[in-house]
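dumping this here before i forget
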Amino acid sequence: MGLLKDKILQSSWAHGKMTRVRRKAKIAALSCTHSPFTPPETHKWLLDTLSNIPDLTHFGHLGDVFEAGAASVHVNEFDHTLSDEYEHACNLLKSIRSVLPKDCIRWINTGNHDDNIKTQDPRRIPKPLRGLVDWNLHPDFGEEFKDWYWVPYEKSSKGVYRVGQCHFYHGFDSSQNSDELEGLQILGACGWVPFSLTIRGHTHRPVEPTQSQRTAKIPLPFWYSNVGTCGPLRPEYMKRKDTSQWGTALIVVECVWDRPSRLNGRCWDAELVRMP
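structure:
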């Protein structure tokens, strides 16, 4: 990632004098594990891949940790309970944490499935029961969930985790061009930081880091990407719909770890890593 190396060197030299050397962040992020439906082969691939990425400073799960079938407004016939989902997710997060550096900063963007458990909608979890199903309060698994920083599911700057010029969120719209359009909406909420990269999940469709376009010939100084899914690629509820664009992936980002207002030009590199 030569671009990033050059930017770090440039940022540490000003007016012919050395200034403070800016920190570099190395981030891995994935999304949509949908416990308890994470395929075992996907779980193994995640651990193998993460354990072979050196010097990670950050790790992000971009949401839909849980399937939250019990909170769905759609009829389903799942045999598992919400507690079963919490147990599976707890073990998944523990296994991920075990292959990360001990000082790695970890966060989770709450996804729409996760938020369904807590949302104020009587069609999902009745109000008197919402406090009882809070994953952080589960007597057996809550301690693991509380060990992660949770970003709320909110279409505003509060729902975004930011490192330098990189903006991580779960996602809201699922239309074909929503990665780009919603990315621009998120950047607007965050102050239109030039040369930013937005990264999300939600649609289950992996998208390489791509520059936004005003027209076919006029690029914008913003980029977007999607990490796809780490859940099943052909779930039962999608058997009548098209999942041909779904894919399993994670993203690895290196960026200058500083306030965006202090950065000049694009100060990040990113690579989408797909499961074979």
